[in-house]
Amino acid sequence: MNYSHVFHAGNFADIVKHAALLALLGRLQADPAPLTVIDTHGGRGLYDLDAPEARRSAEAESGIARLVEDPAPPEAVGRLKTAVLAASKAAGGRRYPGSPLLVAQRLRPQDGLTVFEFNPREAEILTVSLAGAGAVFVETADGYDGAVRSLPPEGQALVLIDPPYERGDDYDRCLATLQAITRLCPRAAIMIWLPIKDLETFDAFVRRAEEIRPVRIAEVRLRPLLDPMRMNGCALVLAAAPEGLDLDLAAICEWTASRLGEGGRARLWGSA
Fold this sequence. Notes:
Blueprint: H1 12-28, E1 35-39, E2 46-48, H2 52-57, H3 64-69, H4 75-91, E3 95-97, H5 99-104, E4 112-116, H6 120-129, E5 136-139, H7 143-149, E6 156-161, H8 170-184, E7 189-196, H9 199-212, E8 216-221, E9 233-239, H10 245-260, E10 265-270
Parallel strand pairs: 1-4, 1-6, 4-5, 6-7
Antiparallel strand pairs: 2-3, 7-9, 8-9, 8-10
Helix pairs in contact: 1-4, 1-10, 7-8, 8-9
């Protein structure tokens, strides 16, 4: 599969992932210590929701467009709405900011961001999107390996592992990266995004993650898991998350399941 996120930008899964990322970032930055953020699969940073690809899938219309229309979303979701409206205003059209741009705009002077993007063309666009953002580095390289070698020797660290799951080994490499980071930098906060298509694949991944270290799961199902060829929901697998994050995750998952789902449900579970 030749994956391009431009077809999917601003869908329900982006809302869960990016609202949680903003909440996680805010809680980590309550500590004055320097924070290094590492993004394994950066994409292009900013997406045009009126591009032909986005219009063809129409995923943003049942995702971020619904959030923008909500006059009073929970604070944890409202932060993303504010960021999307600001990006759209700045561009003069409907835009959706990806994780690198959301983080880059919130870096403090003592913080840094390293983003990996394997596709050279996407990496070029990403570099332009992040121009002038401060201590931001874009590498055209494998993000799994890059995340491990970019861990800081001191200070705080946040690693976002967010592959498109187009390769057969993406699940295995996510787990291998979780294990390597745990060994080298156990203090690092880690957030892995997962699609939920069928229960067997999802449960197997979580079981293997729990063998590596305690993890917390934030899960959103839009609908019953009846069609394994369809993304029926998504989940975040978190390690070393800061105290209080559960409050944000619950609000994000419940809003998404109730407002965007078809008989959807949300839950938080796990031992971390």
